[in-house]
Specification:
119 residues; mainly beta; 7-stranded mixed β-sheet; 11 strands
Length: 119
């Protein structure tokens, strides 16, 4: 079993910055991680992902403003969010695709952390 613990959400004014963190613990051989978000009344959407080798993928809406990074030794992923907009408001979920020693892949989600951007 793998647990994901997120931190770093909060209230910020438009134009401000926040940094989200997520740490994975448990039986992990390898892991690819990412962040998704869900705005009120909308479906959950991808924000950014990063592989263990460092390849990244961003939603068009956050390119140039958000940066995803990882600490492989800690099985942690970070999301540095800058120039925040009210449209970035939502619950941000950490996601992990965990590869076990038996080569199976399982997907885990964190409980989410709320980001509120005021105008």
């Amino acid at each position: 079993q793998v647990q994901l613990v997120e931190s770093g959400g909060g209230l910020v004014q438009a134009g401000g910055s926040l940094r989200l963190s997520c740490a994975a613990s448990g039986s992990i051989f390898s892991i690819n991680m990412g962040w998704y978000r869900q705005a009120p009344g909308k479906q959950r959407e991808l924000v950014a992902t990063i592989t263990r080798s460092g390849s990244t993928n961003y939603a068009d809406s956050v390119k140039g403003r958000f940066t995803i990074s990882t600490d492989n030794a800690k099985n942690a992923v970070y999301l540095q969010m800058s120039t925040l907009e009210p449209e970035d408001t939502g619950v941000y979920y950490c996601n992990a695709d965990v590869i076990t020693r038996s080569a199976s892949v399982m997907t885990y989600w964190g409980k989410g952390t709320l980001v509120t951007v005021s105008s």
